[in-house]
Design goal:
Layout (H helix, E strand, L loop, with lengths): L1 H26 L12 H11 L8 E2 L3 H8 L8 H11 L5 E2 L4 E16 L15 H5 L5 E9 L3 E9 L13 E4 L3 E2 L2 E2 L11 E6 L3 E8 L2 E2 L16 E9 L3 E10 L2 E4 L3 E4 L3 E14 L4 E14 L23 E14 L2 E11 L3 H6 L7 E14 L2 E12 L29 E4 L2 E4 L8 E12 L3 E12 L22 E13 L4 E12 L4 E11 L1
Antiparallel strand pairs: 1-11, 2-3, 3-4, 3-6, 3-28, 4-5, 5-9, 7-8, 9-10, 10-12, 12-13, 13-16, 14-15, 16-17, 17-18, 18-19, 19-20, 20-21, 21-24, 22-23, 24-25, 25-26, 26-27, 27-28
Helix pairs in contact: 2-4, 3-4
């Protein structure tokens, strides 16, 4: 009898050990990527500033492994609610465990979003994608299905499939109302569905100190509420290759993102087309100093374009100083410096400086093509405080961008004869394309702008959030399609300037753990038209 009991205890012990090891394997896999739209980033930024620390890495999204390191530097006592948002995210495990090595999770949501606006003829002047601001920032499919897989300790993959109508403006310019309901538009039934899914699909391999990601994902680099001077989250996704090496006080990133080739003609201007290669490449170092009160980053990026054939892989070097390639016929480099300093608990001062073109007096004397000067600068102040049951955040920010920031030509052979970019040269600007629609890769409002932005938000974590934002901008005549001109040393705003005013109110309420309702109102006023835009929707997760 005793022998039988010992055998049973042995089997139970073996079973528990196997179960423990299986859980341990999945728990040790930190390669899951936390999406940019997650509440984790807002929560962790607020925790850090509340504790008197500078914000963590601004190269985002993060893997779970990196997030665990970041979370370990703050205390749950600062805010149990904010801490719990991050903690729940990093503790997520596969819902389906096939064996001790392989697991997976299926999830997603269903949603309905309605829109209304007062000016059918309004044209948003800063990108080609849509005239509705909410739609330009959020994907709102009728149905989204997520599929995640974990393999052992080091492998992870993610893919989502969205069921929605083809592209966006389904009658928005023809009606004062619109909605995102698959197979239905204000004009009636449609079978014209989006066939270019998935828009987020990638594979990750890594450990607790490094990761390598390849596929389609969103990306953000840099500090800023109104956008980043070096890489803003403006496009629906990036086709990227990303390597990250991270510790408690440093992070190194090498990133490549690939875009459709661009061409230009006199009739249509810059557009997708032609044969060749176009990609963005950057390496970035982030460090922390002064007992975590100071965060600093240096970033050098390059826009590489080759017409016809393939790229010269000699120039794909993670540790090279790109500027010294001296390949102005193929590439244009930008250097970016950033800093975030939390000088007191709850108070954070941040800044960003991007240098696209600068010539010393000697260079100007030798080569007129080194002009004009092109740079951007941003400065902001952020206050975070605990108020009642929630968190109050106030951000005041200003930005200045020179007219030719992000614009560059390669066709000007003799500026004394003809200083203007040829109308058939797409140039080497920091411009990407998605389905024929052009976007600035850097600051969302591009060059030639002076921007002032104020945002207030109050959040009861995991319950509801409400925010109000006011933005005022004076913009010059240069835009994403402008031609580069040697010797044009005008400062922003150049030429015939125009104004843009945006007042935005938004709210989101978590009705339950899986059901959320959201609302947004944008009042747009300016020299180039006005509009009142409304968005209202509900989302049910599963």
């Amino acid at each position: 009898m005793l022998l039988i009991k010992l055998r049973q205890m042995k089997r139970t012990a073996v079973f528990l050990l196997v179960l423990f090891l299986g859980v341990l394997l999945f728990a040790a896999n930190g390669q899951k990527v936390i999406p940019l739209e997650s509440d984790v980033y807002r929560a962790i930024d607020e925790l850090y500033i509340l504790e008197g620390k500078a914000v963590p890495s601004t190269t985002r999204p993060w893997t779970v492994a990196e997030t665990v390191k970041i979370l370990s530097k703050v205390s749950i006592e600062t805010s149990v609610e904010l801490y719990s948002i991050v903690e729940e995210s990093v503790k997520e495990e596969p819902k389906i465990k096939v064996d001790d090595i392989f697991g997976m999770t299926f999830g997603g949501y269903a949603s309905i979003t309605g829109y209304a606006h007062t000016n059918k003829g309004y044209a948003y002047p800063f990108n080609d994608m849509t005239n509705n601001l909410f739609r330009s920032e959020h994907e709102v499919p009728s149905l989204r299905v997520d599929w995640e897989t974990w393999v052992g300790e080091h492998l992870y993959s993610f893919v989502w499939y969205q069921y929605k109508n083809e592209y966006y403006n389904n009658g928005y310019s023809d009606f004062n109302f619109d909605f995102d309901i698959a197979n239905l538009t204000p004009k009636g039934l449609t079978t014209d569905m989006d066939q270019r899914e998935p828009s987020r699909a990638f594979f990750v391999v890594g450990s607790d100190s490094w990761s390598l990601e390849y596929g389609r994902d969103r990306l953000m680099m840099g500090i800023g509420n109104s956008g980043s001077l070096i890489f803003s989250n403006t496009m629906p996704y990036q086709n990227l290759l990303r390597f990250s090496l991270f510790g408690s006080r440093y992070k190194y990133s090498f990133i490549m993102s690939f875009y459709p080739h661009l061409c230009r003609d006199e009739e249509h201007g810059i557009q997708e087309g032609g044969d060749g290669v176009l990609f963005y490449m950057t390496h970035r170092l982030e460090c922390r100093f002064l007992s975590d009160r100071l965060y600093a980053a240096v970033n050098e990026s390059i826009m590489y374009r080759k017409d016809g054939g393939v790229a010269d892989i000699r120039y794909v070097n993670p540790v090279m100083y790109f500027h010294n390639y001296f390949i102005s016929d193929y590439a244009n480099s930008i250097v970016d410096l950033e800093a975030s300093f939390t000088f007191a608990k709850g108070w954070n001062l941040y800044g960003q400086f991007a240098l696209d073109q600068f010539a010393s007096p000697v260079e100007k004397a030798e080569d007129q093509y080194n002009e004009p000067l092109a740079f951007g600068v941003m400065l902001g102040l952020k206050n975070v405080s605990l108020a009642g049951k929630g968190v109050l955040t106030i951000v005041l920010e200003g930005a200045y961008t020179m007219p030719y920031l992000y614009l560059r030509a390669k066709s000007i052979e003799d500026p004394d004869v003809n200083p203007v970019q040829d109308v058939t040269d797409p140039g080497l600007g920091y411009v990407g394309s998605y389905r024929g629609n052009l976007f600035y890769i850097g600051y969302r409002y591009g060059g030639d702008a002076i921007v002032a932005d104020l945002k207030l938000s109050y959040e009861v974590p995991s319950s509801w959030i409400i925010s109000a934002e006011g933005l005022y901008m004076v913009h010059g005549e240069k835009n994403i399609r402008s031609l580069f001109t040697v010797g044009d040393n005008a400062f922003a705003p150049s030429g015939e300037s125009w104004s843009f005013i945006l007042l935005e109110l938004s709210a989101k309420k978590h009705l339950s753990k899986s059901v959320s309702a959201y609302f947004r109102y944008d009042m747009i006023q300016g020299s180039r038209g006005s509009d009142n835009q409304f968005a209202l929707g509900i989302e049910v997760g599963f």
